[in-house]
Amino acid sequence: MLSIENLTVFVDTKTILKGLNLNVPAGEVHAIMGPNGAGKSTLGYTLAGRPNYEVAQGAVDFNGEDLLEMEVHERAAAGLYLSFQYPLEIPGVPALTFIRTALNAQRKLRGEDEMSAPEFLKTTRELAKTLKIDMDMLKRPLNVGFSGGEKKRMEVLQMALLKPKFLILDETDSGLDIDALKVVSDGVNALRAPDRGMLVITHYQRLLDHIKPDRIHILVDGKIVHSGGPELALELEAHGYDRYLGEAA
Amino acid sequence: MAAVKETIETVQKLETYEHGFVSDIEMEYAPKGLSADIVRFISAKKNEPEWMLEYRLAAFERWQSMDEPDWAKVEYQKVDYQDLYYYAAPKPKAKLNSLDEVDPELLAVYAKLGIPLKEQEVLAGVASAPKYAVDAVFDSVSVVTTFKDELKKSGVIFCAISEALREYPDLVRQYLGSVVPVSDNYFAALNAAVFSDGSFVYVPPGVRCPMELSTYFRINAENTGQFERTLIIADKGAYVSYLEGCTAPMRDENQLHAAVVELVALDDAEIKYSTVQNWYPGDAEGKGGIYNFVTKRADCRGARSKVSWTQVETGSAVTWKYPSCILRGDESVGEFYSIAVTNGMQQADTGTKMIHLGKNTRSRIISKGVSAGKSSNTYRGLVSAHAKAGGSRNFTQCDSLLIGKTCAAHTVPYVESDTATAQFEHEATTTRLSEDQLFYAMQRGLSQEEAVALLVNGFVRDVLQELPMEFAVEAQKLVAISLEGSVG
Fold first, then answer.
1. What is the pTM of this model?
2. Where do the SUF system FeS cluster assembly SufBD core domain residues begin and end (chain B) (predicted)?
3. Which end of chain A has fewer beta carbons closer than 10 Å to its terminal beta carbon, N or C?
């Protein structure tokens, strides 16, 4: 589904990713773990096409398409979703308006019909309920004055509505208390499907108790230095990243 | 939500100034240039009473002794006032009694303008369309006013000001120039001398005008100045909501538009005046476009009267415009809600004056400036309280949004108070359209232009909400179109 080959990325003049290889098949959840500054968020941003994240070399195949050739919104319409570590505030644009505009923009790009307002409202209402999001909150400008937990729930609501093929969760657990973490994780787990892939970027093992990965990759200094099964998370929790730091050099 | 969708579609559909076409209509002109004889010509064309001619001649004399103002933060090639036509009118085929007799080519122009559909239907005479009275001003004359008779049943007078001068001379004489005197400023004096048409509204005591009134201004002829004059009077306890729209063809030369609008609100009356200004802004290099030098002022003459200005300014090469309120009546209220969008080489110097004269008067200013391209956008405002204006209050909020790195935003607020009990508040912010916000919106599926449109519409939302519904949608589209190509 998502296949990254020898990806080298620099931001400004600094090289962050240094020949990264990764393959996430459909239906699997992979976690990227690593110390601060390893390039975890850079990977997510690069895949989403953030400006100023320059790809020096490498290739990314997304369902048979050259992901790096696509514009940011084309990647979104092709089914790539990045859940932001710090979701942006959008003043003056009610959450409902924002999400519906995005949904219909994606549909249009894919040559699909727009979702009607009643259908959109019905679907949104049901999903909002499971995420414990109040409908009144959806009438407020997106994320403006929302708590960290509310913002993350809003990210999950958006992914549930946009139904992407591939999810990148960037530090989704940061700023969440244990109850919010459960709500958000349940929301993400509900989206696990045989035709959907996920990449969970996290610093801590905590999130992986809730969203159980099929594979874990350890990212150090711009490269995957080690990959393994779910048990790797526990090992990291016990021993930290120290034993991997040398390998990158 | 539908509006946002429409905005996006419009953005995708349109590439240039939509209203830039030129119509081939048979016209009648006065000779080029300005002199006392031209003033006499215009007055004679309109069969005006003698006092009106004298008023005009006095204004012309006054204008000759005045200098063009240069304090605004705008730069432009000075107008050669002798190289303009001061009167251009579609040749009348016959005296019009109904819409059916309007030149079909003129009707086609209004249809093509894509003015709000309801207006269009009304202009085309579709009986089932919601009631919406329109005065259509084409170059120097009013070509048609709809629903005049229907309005008259409730006592509301809505007609071309040239007609009002003939039919209701006493009413016009009582109020004309009482808010914006001839000597007020250079452009107001010029307007008083040569204005040829505009709208006149009188709402009698206690009457709530049964429908929205609207004037649609169109400059078509070449080298022609447009000088319209609007006078709206809401008598005691009356209410009226009025909207003006403006467009012009794309031409290489600059065209001058120097209008004067006077509003009078007597005791307990309320006037809501909305503008959607979309004059041709000139091309990307700053060639052509309208000089929009307009004087708009309201006199809240009566106690507890209220005037609310709402403007969406997206067009014109140069804008010089300060819709103001004189809060004369005790407890009167003035409001100013403004969206000014500049792109390309556009320059806007716009704002308001709230002059508190009466006791416990209140005013509110919400200004949203959006600048892109190499444009310059200035908010200039004055809030003042007279010694007798005890207990008066003002709240001002000026927000500027910058798109790109080559535009400019300026805020020039003047605050003066001669009373210890006035309370004035001023808040101002300047922000740049954030790349992070754009990336976030695009990551969710919006193209760059759709993302800009959505974010900017969010920024101006507080003001859009003040517009009548139909026009809010129109304005939202306009804002999006004006900013096309603003992010590199």
1. 0.84
2. 217-459
3. C
- Judge whether A139 is closer than 8 Å to chain B, CB to CB: no
Give residue-wise pLDDT tens across range A137-148. 999 999 999 999
Nearest to A92 among B5, B441, B459 (CB): B459
Cβ atoms of residues B385 and B419 within 8 Å: yes
Contacts of B33 (CB under 8 A, 6+ apart): B81, B82, B83, B84, B86
- Rounded CA-CA distance B109/B381 in Å is 37
Which residue from A50, A71, A97 is facing B4, i.e. has the nearest CB? A97
User: What percentage of chain B has pLDDT greater than the value 70?
Assistant: 81
d(CA A42, CA A45): 5
Q: For the segment B155-182, what is each residue's pLDDT rounded down to a tens digit?
A: 999 988 988 999 999 999 999 999 999 9
Q: Which CATH class is domain A2-248?
A: alpha beta
Q: Which residue in the set A51, A90, A99 is minimally distant from B439, CB to CB?
A: A51
Distance from the first to the final alpha carbon of chain A: 30
Cβ contacts of A158 on chain B, cutoff 8 Å: 444
Contact A50 B439 (CB under 8 A): yes
Rounded to 5°, the CA angle B374-B379-B385 comes to 170
CA-based nearest distance B443→chain A, Å: 6
Query: Residue B285: is it exposed, middle or buried by C-beta count within 10 angstroms (0-12/13-18/19+)?
Result: exposed
- For the record, the structure tokens of A66 come out as 């050259």
Q: A76, B435: Cβ pair inside 8 Å?
A: no
Chain length of chain B = 488
Determine the average pLDDT of the residues in A18-37. Answer: 95
Q: Are B1 and A116 in contact, with CB atoms under 8 Å apart? A: no
ipTM: 0.96
How far lies B401's CA from each of A95, B371, B378, B396, in Å?
Answer: 21, 6, 12, 17
**Taking the domains of chain A in order of start, what are their residue ranges?**
2-248
8 Å CB contact between B442 and A109:
no
Q: Over 70: is that where the pLDDT of B366 sits?
A: yes
